[in-house]
């Protein structure tokens, strides 16, 4: 099972490199979200960085409403970003790793 | 080195459980950030969920400025949240794991 330790180490290094590459690539994956009939639009990366927020003039009259819409839109976008991020990094981390039944540290 | 496989599996399961517990706990760790002399204040959890956004009335007159301030404040808060998140999860994942020099999948 662990006969080839150096081979296993090589595969771990490889997986590590793939994780780093994937992290960089996720900066270029953009997620758009809109609420309030498009009056609040946000764009975030799959690394959960906010790239753009667009607020319609009509929402500037009610501060509380605007704050609530922003929270909803951003959390929706960040949730999707987090899901994509975890999936992609798990895939990269798993590449070349042995499959141990019942074990899934990267889920 | 791998003499006690079942002992190692037990430690992996333990680490996995600690990761899950830590994820839950990070929902209660709050990070505050303020920009524009406190005219934009945000609160996020260490799991990168936005809990509060507070905008001063004075910023409602300039939409573009407001959007920019929001992006800066939120990204500052999310960056700190991400750092805390990674540190805490790495610590949990490492608990009981063997230390292999040159290998750090959880950094």
Automatic annotation (TrEMBL), chains A, B:
It holds the Pfam family YbaB_DNA_bd. Keywords: Coiled coil, Cytoplasm, DNA-binding. Residues 5-32 form a coiled coil. Its main location: cytoplasm. It is found in: Cytoplasm, Nucleoid. Homodimer. PANTHER family: NUCLEOID-ASSOCIATED PROTEIN YBAB. NCBIfam families: DNA_YbaB_EbfC (TIGR00103). Belongs to the YbaB/EbfC family. Binds to DNA and alters its conformation. May be involved in regulation of gene expression, nucleoid organization and DNA protection. This is Nucleoid-associated protein P8625_01895.
């Amino acid at each position: 099972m662990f006969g080839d330790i150096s081979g296993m180490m090589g595969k771990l290094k490889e997986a590590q490199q793939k994780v780093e590459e994937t992290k960089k690539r996720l900066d270029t994956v953009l997620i758009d979200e809109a609420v309030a009939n498009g009056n609040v639009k946000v764009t975030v990366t799959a690394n959960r960085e906010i790239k753009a927020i667009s607020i319609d003039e009509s929402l500037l009259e009610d501060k509380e409403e605007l704050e609530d819409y922003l929270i909803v839109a951003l959390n929706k976008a960040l949730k999707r970003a987090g899901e994509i991020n975890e999936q992609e990094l798990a895939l990269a981390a798993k590449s070349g790793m042995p499959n141990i039944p019942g074990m899934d540290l990267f889920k």
